[in-house]
Every structure is written in structure tokens, then in C-alpha cells.
Specification:
By secondary structure, the protein is an alpha/beta fold. It has one domain (18-154, 167-219): Rossmann fold. 32% of the residues lie in helices and 16% in strands. It contains eight helices and seven strands. It has helices at residues 22-28, 37-47, 64-72, 84-90, 130-140, 178-187, 199-211, 216-219, and strands at 54-58, 76-81, 99-101, 114-120, 141-150, 153-154, 176-177. The termini are far apart.
């Protein structure tokens, strides 16, 4: 089954993403993020999901994670992405998992629908909608479900040397800060099971992008090194 809904941005125009560019996938493959299925498998080992668990991949892109989940043969995966281009590439890669065209900040799923959500290098791309997306994640996860966030984050102080005022949500643009993300997740009722940093996998991804002629900072809309 494949379902779809046409997303629109705040001004009524369809949304777009640099990751739609075919040269990106030629470099990274279907898993367009640092770590790829290595970190997906790591998360599954930590969560210990029982057979038959309903799992959603939010921002599933070209279907790399969904293909990995299908091969496991243990879960009922669902993929959601706003890119018609990437969903079209995911269709022939998958045997049966539903694909939904939609937006992370307005999930077309019922409350408590899922045992686990994957959000892999997506939250950092939701400029202006990060808080709304996390609120939706909390809504559609069942009690005791797992939110698996794999993403890049920023370090260091603001450029002017002055401390930033901490918002109730997440900054609209730029790299996420650990304290901002964990603070909001706590307010939404999540508790931290594990935080790991995988600098080597990030460096490998960045190196592949640069050697392929792509600037990673362009992908995430940030100017940090």
C-alpha cells in the first residue's frame, strides 16, 4: 500500500530539500546521513523492540532505513517524507511497507500509533518546525515507546561571546545544541535512555560529501565548520 498527501509550506508553496538532488544519493546511497544502517542497527539493539512492533521512519527519504527494517522481518514499518522525488525512489526498494507523503510537524497518524519512531538527520532540517515535530512525535508514540534521534549537533559558544537566551522550543535554524534538544524532550515527557556521539561516522560522511563535490554545510543550512 502507498498513500500520499501533498504538503505545502507556510506560504502555500510546496516544500523542497537539498537532499532531493540526485548527486547526493549517488555519494551517500539510500541512507542520506552519517552512520547509515550502522546507527540504525545500534538503536534497535538498544531498544530491544519485540517482534511485530509498529515502527515509523519520519523523513524516510529514499527508503534506506525502511529497507533495513524490512530485511529484519520483525517489525511493521511505515515511512513518511515530504519529498515526492525521494518517496518515488523508495517504492521499488521496498516489498510492502506503507509510504506516506506528509510533514513531520503535522503527522497523519493517530495518538499512540507507534512503538518506536526513527528521526535520522531530519530534525536538524526542519527549520522553524522542530518543536512542533517533537510534539507530534510525543503524540503518536505509545506510552513507553522509543524516539530514536540520530543527528548532527553544534558545540561552543555564540560568536559574540554572550550566552544565548534559551527558548522554550528549539532554535529555528542552525545546528541543534544538546541542551536545547534534551531540555525540550524532558518537557514533552521523554526520559533519556542513552546519548552517544559518533564523531568518526560523521567525519566519514563529511569526507564523502566533500570528495563528491558537495559542501555539507549547504545541506543543513548552517555556516558552522
Amino acid at each position: 500500500m502507498r498513500t500520499s498527501s501533498r504538503p505545502v509550506g507556510p506560504t502555500g508553496t510546496t516544500t523542497d530539500c537539498s537532499f532531493d538532488r540526485p548527486e547526493i544519493r549517488q555519494i551517500s546511497g539510500p541512507c542520506i546521513r552519517p552512520g547509515g544502517p550502522v546507527l540504525t542497527g545500534r538503536a534497535l539493539d538498544i531498544c530491544g523492540l519485540p517482534q511485530g512492533s509498529r515502527v515509523a521512519d519520519i523523513g524516510c527519504g529514499a527508503g534506506g532505513t525502511l529497507e533495513y527494517l524490512e530485511r529484519k522481518g520483525l517489525f511493521r514499518p511505515v515511512g513518511l517524507d515530504h519529498s515526492e522525488t525521494l518517496l518515488g525512489e523508495a517504492v521499488p526498494r521496498l516489498a510492502s511497507g506503507p509510504l506516506v507523503r506528509g510533514r513531520a510537524e503535522i503527522l497523519p497518524f493517530k495518538k499512540g500509533s507507534f512503538d518506536a519512531l526513527f528521526c535520522e538527520c531530519v530534525l536538524s532540517l526542519l527549520f522553524g518546525e522542530r518543536t512542533a515535530a517533537l510534539e507530534e512525535f510525543a503524540r503518536v508514540l505509545r506510552e513507553g515507546g522509543f524516539l530514536i534521534v540520530s543527528d548532527i549537533f553544534g558545540r561552543g559558544s555564540p560568536e559574540n561571546g554572550q550566552p544565548e537566551a534559551k527558548p522554550q522550543g528549539l532554535p529555528a535554524k542552525g545546528l541543534l545544541a544538546k541542551e536545547d534538544l534534551l531540555g525540550l524532550l524532558t518537557r514533552l515527557g521523554f526520559s533519556l535512555l542513552l546519548w552517544e556521539e559518533h564523531g568518526r561516522l560523521l567525519k566519514e560522511f563529511v569526507a564523502r560529501m566533500i570528495l563528491g563535490g558537495v559542501r555539507p554545510t549547504d545541506l543543513w543550512g548552517c555556516g558552522q565548520g
